[in-house]
Amino acid sequence: MFLTWQTSPAFIALRTIARKAGLNRLIGRLRPNQGYEFTFDDAIFSHLREGDIVWDVGANVGYYTKRFAETVGPSGMVFAFEPFPDTAARLCENLEGVSNYALVPAALGAECGTVTMQTGSDALGATNRIVDDSQDGDVTIQIETGDNVIISGRADAPTCIKIDTEGFELDVLRGMGALIEETPTLRALFIEVHFGLLAERGIPKAPIMIEQMLKKNGFETTWVDSSHIVAVRG
Questions:
Q1: Could you give the number of structural domains in the chain?
Q2: What is the Cα Rg of the chain in Å?
């Protein structure tokens, strides 16, 4: 059962049609003054506090990581999860001199192991993503669960989590089930939901499942736009 109009079957079907027709790109070009993910940024930074421990899952070259580090201050900490070696190297270059962050060179998912990652077409690597079939130029990367990262001591338990994983956001949440259920200090999650990529993976109902999982664990959810959900507890 869908919970909001963003996860209704009709809306998901309409998104699929618009994406295949290229209308999403057209709409994006018609809204240049809003900036990239403008409302999502506002939502994130309105909830962050000095001293927070933030997980930046799908950190890419560190755009959010650097801003998170500045916002949480020296008493806070940011853990940047970026598995793609070239992208992780650029992240480290971009955050040279920043002391309150740590790189975790792994992807997060539903289970531990290795997966194949495909290089995206954009210059910044923002569309690098996990794929099922290996092709020339793809890279094998390590994948961890969020729960195991905490147990192994690779990262501290977060107070806030940002997730942008190109269609693997449900897997990421499933791999941190204990963290979400049992960590009262986890205050907020900020997730980009890739409807089209989830549908391509054969799980078009994943947005509904994401929303249900968050609500089940005591989070109030808000879609700040058609692709970004903010979940806040307490």
A1: 1
A2: 17
